[in-house]
UniProtKB/TrEMBL annotation:
<dbReference type="Pfam" id="PF00106">
    <property type="entry name" value="adh_short"/>
</dbReference>
<dbReference type="InterPro" id="IPR036291">
    <property type="entry name" value="NAD(P)-bd_dom_sf"/>
</dbReference>
<dbReference type="GO" id="GO:0004757">
    <property type="term" value="F:sepiapterin reductase (NADP+) activity"/>
</dbReference>
<keyword id="KW-0963">Cytoplasm</keyword>
<dbReference type="GO" id="GO:0006729">
    <property type="term" value="P:tetrahydrobiopterin biosynthetic process"/>
</dbReference>
<keyword id="KW-0560">Oxidoreductase</keyword>
<dbReference type="GO" id="GO:0005737">
    <property type="term" value="C:cytoplasm"/>
</dbReference>
<protein>
    <submittedName>
        <fullName>Sepiapterin reductase</fullName>
    </submittedName>
</protein>
<dbReference type="InterPro" id="IPR051721">
    <property type="entry name" value="Biopterin_syn/organic_redct"/>
</dbReference>
<keyword id="KW-0521">NADP</keyword>
<dbReference type="InterPro" id="IPR002347">
    <property type="entry name" value="SDR_fam"/>
</dbReference>
Length: 267
């Protein structure tokens, strides 16, 4: 029976939760075992998601187990190694045929200011949460795959954004962070053989959730703010469920170029 491990950061949030829900609704064509490791800050929310996933999962062909790793605040970079240790233990250190690490957690930063309004402290905090943690956890995951002798193929997935490849005013820290995360995935694709680890940056589209709500109310560029408000009013935002489903299909088809940036709207 094929065995999959999925480690997911930001599991409590809009897209993260939808990704977890999509994994347990996989179109299964035979028996599989799936071990989900949900990583986040709030223990209460993670426990309730775990309960929901176990209660909803109905396909008798899927052997599902779920672990949670709470109190993982990615701004506390001094604790990242310790957090990884807890994540690693939660994987149960078993050999899996495929091991997915989905780096979904991310923050918006302050969109009310252009670059000339930034403070050094705010830049540092933003980069810690969104870039330093991504690079450090990627490094840990690659070593973990090496230690297990690449017995199962590894997949590193960065949740990216259009902002990683296209600049817009007032999105400075966010765009820099997403571009850096894309480059981490691209570099992994150059450093590690594809039959060992494959990497992907997935831009999920403008999602109908809390992050977009913050964009609509806090973006300092009023022209863009009204564009986002219009998209919301006209129902043009993407649902987290649709975007998560697209990501899972991309991963299962396994046809993407390793290290590439793929957008929800790509054919
Ligand atoms: N929303 C969009 O339109 C959009 C578009 C393109 C890309 N994205 C990307 O998609 C991903 C998910 O976004 P979303 O829309 O689902 O937003 P969300 O609902 O705000 O979720 C963000 C997740 O990141 C976690 N997070 C934020 N700061 C953290 C920290 N310091 N330590 C640990 N976890 C932290 C949050 O944890 P808590 O639950 O504990 O708060 C939450 O689970 C992000 O990487 C985002 O940049 C979103």
């Amino acid at each position: 029976m094929p065995s999959y491990l999925v480690i997911l950061t930001g599991a409590n949030g809009g897209l993260g939760k939808a990704i977890a829900q999509s994994w347990i609704s996989l179109p299964v064509s035979g028996p599989i075992s799936l071990h989900l490791v949900l990583v986040g800050r709030s223990k209460k929310a993670l426990d309730s998601l775990k309960e929901e996933l176990i209660a909803t999962q109905s396909d008798f062909q899927m052997e599902l187990t779920v672990s949670t790793v709470s109190d993982v605040d990615l701004s506390q970079v001094d604790e990242l190694d310790e957090h990884w240790g807890r994540i690693k233990r939660a994987t149960l250190n078993k050999p899996y045929d495929k091991q997915y690490f989905i780096l979904n957690a991310g923050s918006l930063g302050d969109l009310s200011k252009p670059i000339s309004g930034y403070t050094t402290k705010s830049i540092q905090t933003y980069m810690d949460v969104n870039v330093v943690s991504t690079l450090a956890l990627t490094s840990h995951f690659l070593r973990h795959c090496q230690e297990t002798g690449f017995k199962g193929k590894g997949y590193l997935i960065n949740i990216s954004s259009l902002l990683a490849i296209q600049p817009f005013p007032y999105w400075g820290t966010y765009a820099v962070g997403k571009a850096a995360r894309d480059m981490i995935m691209a570099t992994v694709a150059k450093e590690v053989r594809e039959d060992q680890v494959r990497s992907l940056s997935y831009a999920p589209g403008p999602l109908d959730g809390l992050m977009q709500e913050a964009v609509r109310t806090s973006l300092g560029d009023l022209e863009q703010q009204s564009t986002y408000q219009k998209m919301h009013q006209e129902g043009k935002l993407v649902t987290c469920k649709d975007s998560a489903t697209k990501l899972i299909h991309l991963l299962l088809e396994d046809a993407f170029a390793s290290g590439s940036h793929v957008d929800y709207f790509d054919e």
